[in-house]
Amino acid sequence: MREITFQKALEEAVAEEMRRDPRVITMGTDFTGDPIKEFGASRVRFTPISEAVLTGMGLGAAGCGVRPIVNWRMVTFSFVAMDQVVNQASKIRYMFGGQADFPVTYRCSTGGGIGLAAQHSQSPYSMWMHLAGLKIVLPSTPADAKGLLKSAIRDNNPVVSFECSRLATLTGPVPDGDHLVPLGVADVKRTGTDVTIVALAYYVQESLAVADELAREGVSIEVLDPRTLVPMDVETLRASVQKTGRVVIVDEAPATCSAAAEIAALMVEDPDTFRALKAPVRRVCAMPVPVPYSPPLEKAALPSRDDIRAAVHDVLKESV
Amino acid sequence: MTLDKARLVQMLRTMILIREFDERAIQLRLAGKIYGTVHPYVGQEAVAVGVSAQLSVTDRVTSTHRGHGHCIAKGADIRRMMAELFGRVDGYCKGKGGSMHIADFAVGMLGANGIVGGGLPIACGAALAGQLEGKGAVTVCFFGDGAAAEGEFHESLNIASLWKLPIVFVCENNQYAANNPVGVQHPRVDIAAHAAPYDMPGVGVDGNDVLAVHAATADAVTRARRGDGPSLLECKTYRWHFHAMRAARPPETRPAEEIASWKAGDPIARLEQHMVGRALLSPDELRAIRDRVGAELDEAVAFAEASPFPDPKDLMADMFAR
Questions:
Q1: What CATH topology corresponds to B5-305?
Q2: Which CATH class is domain A187-317?
């Protein structure tokens, strides 16, 4: 299978969907390559830096039969468009009684670890999970990035595609042809029997590396990637935890009210999963600080492989 | 353009219907028959009607928290509007939206909006869809003077002009942003003046003169349909009642003489006088219009009261499209 970068996979997804469906348009402040050459200036829209109007335009156009992709670039810029995300996009279909669909895709980079400091290193997906009306994807591999973004563009709802900055240059196999990954289906990235690690985005890759190391110590780790945070494939997650009896949840957002917190709750509030637990649920998350700039500080703020390894050892040690 | 009798009667009838709908809504809210908040449009009828009379069903509008008038003027069914206020399943949003979220996509009414300025970006998106369709559809974005202080207003005017979107921005300057006089909201009370820096026509118009609103809208709509881009229309008007009410009418804080002077320029009375002056309306005809509006409202209320409440088992329906 051919290998391409995560970033290239995302670009392929957009180009293929624009070829497939003339209703798909894309709006952003810049584009890789020259998509106007293939798709024309009416479908590839260079925009002013106006996140609020872009976010709302995507929604308004979607309600009138267009299928816009709005690229915020960094998720942190989307905070300028909070009204359109929180009050409009997440509620518009329901509050109008389902009389129209709003097939808009919002794309953004997310996460820290590359020296972009406090504002541009955030991972705020849980803020929007909380809104209930947005679908949210968060891929960890080039193949998933392509397949999920294509599914997002075809979905008839507002979908936010969180695209992890540290994965942009990651290379991996991507199937040829019309490669789709359905929304709402988790993926078992590695099978194991002793501990389940539920990891998000970059930390799927980090957890796989830790699992390799721990295998040499005789510890068998199962690594799960939810891939879609809304809707969450809770059955697959619970099945794994029921099998291993131990779970470590790894994400680079701070723990408070996080996706990790939600996943922990979904595990422990299910009677079968709760009864299967042999150890307390552990979260490995960022420290509750703005992500600092200086490399040693940034490293201290974000989860590390050592943190994941320690958490795995803890749940093994604490087992009843 | 001199409007013929049929058009004028239609406009007058719609203005009376809007006024009586909201007067009825106030009574229903006081009686506890409907819930939440009511933002009456009474006094501003000439704007919704004068503008909408230039639009067809394939044109689109976005509205505000004070949206009943825009819905009615764009052709929404008052029975389904009333059922929505009553929180019933036959309401436009199956009782899920209420007064501030009435929409009727079938007639191009893309929704009221509880957020000041929130509809402007959505309207730009509808206009973008119209531009891509290439069939001449125009979007009208209604908003208030308060919204002109929002960032979304400026972002929207900027991109609409840059992309020559087929949109007409209609500011209903009713002299108050919520409860604050327009003079304490803007350094210079001239909303239309915001058009020039964004390189579009900006026109101030007497928003209580439905014929003036209608004429000004014609120019803006023609320009938009031609592909020449947006316009900004500032319609100076006045809300007769409070900004919003819940269980009780809030106390009036505006000067009595100010209210009286605006009421003296009642947009409905002005249209009636115009029609009488042209011998296009007799007292009998006017009485017949009013009687029919009253009967339609009675029927709308009966329709709403007969409609069932939504079943809680449908709480989660309509969250996501397939």
A1: Rossmann fold (3.40.50)
A2: alpha beta
